[in-house]
Amino acid sequence: MGDFYQNGVITTLHNLSRDSVSIESMEKELTEFAKVRPLSLVLPSLYSELQGPALKNIVEHLCEVPYLNQIVIGLDRATEDEYRHALEFFSKLPQKIKVLWNDGPRLQALDAELQEQGLAPKELGKGRNVWYCLGFVLGSGQAESVALHDCDILTYDRHMLARLLYPVANPNFNYEFCKGYYARVADGKINGRVSRLLVTPLLRALKKIFGNLDYLEYLDSYRYPLAGEFSFRTDVINDIRIPSDWGLEIGVLSEMDRNYSNNRLCQVDIADTYDHKHQSLSVDNENGGLSKMSIDISKAIFRKLATNGVVFNTETFRSIKATYYRIALDFVETYRNDATINGLKFDIHSEEQAVELFAHNILKAGLHFLDNPMETPFIPSWNRVTSAVPDIFPRMMDAVEKDMEEFSSK
Prior knowledge:
This protein is of the alpha/beta class and 410 residues long. Helix content is 50%, strand content 12%. The strands form two sheets. The chain has an eight-stranded mixed sheet, sandwiched between helices. The relative contact order is 0.15.
């Protein structure tokens, strides 16, 4: 049974009635909502995920979802034959399906044109995939509310999607944005190291150094700030500027804080258990795994604080690292005790290894921030893109339609 406690500055929607609200009753409501406010889903996917168990299960569950008007799949790292396979793979879905072949010549040509004008994502990755998918949703005009979730969720069921969309689909609610959260417990242990051992202790360290700034209080209100599951009204897409690296989730939360008042934002409990593929710690490779993730996330937080007027220097970042390190070690003990009382496995050595790496990378991220003051990691908003290239949406629609028509086996 979930608690009903409201802490922080955004609304938390708990799961207080796990046995009394059936998926059928919730989907019936969503089907009625969709008549007034059409609903869409975005799935950013690597081709490799089509070969794993998670996405197959996700598609099976989505086949039973009655309220979605459209599903937009962004396909990365796919050859022509793999794109053909993807079209066949997703063809069983009964909703309107659009598969963006991001590596195909048509979408690559549009990307090159935007690159020339400084309007396209500067690096490959999930952020770029999401950005193009959201642009497609906006341009297609087929949805008023849209959800997004990852394609590697091993514990997926359709109740997760229903709860994620409900807050922005219900016309009696005023939420523009909803973030999913859940307990990262699977296989008898606590997961979610980057959120537990980097983000939360880093935010507490920053509060200790800079005081209770509104942005820090806001970010610390989210129970799982790095969750890849969120939903929003489609008008949010126009102005949002997101990072193209691992700072995507923090960047989205920062944009919501900039563009909307807190009473238009919420988070919702979407799952009792949640598991997906796990990144390696990558101690010796700052360009991969949790090492790169920790650097990108730290930079995203520092950039946002700087836009709020916080001044950093080398000594500041050394203080942040030291303060973080002590707080994070205290959290290791806290999580060990939490794991013990719940009968879960807990490896203190690997937890403290992660803390040591994250402390090192916080300082590295800070120094990179100081050394690159002109760095602009954010992808331009779609408002800016359509201002510079007014026909970008119909051309994108046309490219996707031609790809699907040309390479579909049907």
